[in-house]
# Entry
Amino acid sequence: MTRPPTAAQRRLIEAADPVTGRLRATDAQLAALVKRGLAFRHPRPPHDHFLTPAGHRIRETPAEEAVAAAVPAPADSGVFAARVGGEQTADASPARTREVHSAWQGLLELRRMTNPGGATDRPCGWERAHLVRAAALALEAAGHRPATGEGDGYRVRATPQPEAVAVHEPDPTALRACAATLEQAGWQVSEHTQPRTRERYVLASPRRI
# Structure
């Protein structure tokens, strides 16, 4: 899973010469872009740095699309998807842990690039458009255990309410821990009881301010 350029790197890319792609930055910044394959050092003096074709594509791509590879994809896409709970199997391997961590860092970068003022303490537009997957990623990245099949663990589900998801977890202590994690991730949370089953659940909505 490829990490997107940071907000600072994207600003350098966007500030490159619009025709030649020549870059102006510190040696360390230029070296980081070269390492990512987004720039190259010209072999002839004065050895200026220029955008590669990949760097030009970054400049021409909206910020949301530039980080698309680092945030959760639909479960049927064959690539990473956050676990919403209820899946038949659960991969607890180190590789899965790394994938989840990378996806969460990518989502934080998307917040930085798209939220006003670069705020990372509240959800961004992508999360509000993908509520279930966004909430599930926050939970899985914090180490909560998703339900497998009909077993115990968290389940994130859509609700009829706009911009709200329901988090179900049969263990009251684990449910409160899920609520705390979402609150720390910038969601507004409240605990409720199902009138018919008396089951406790958490209702969570992305915080805007």
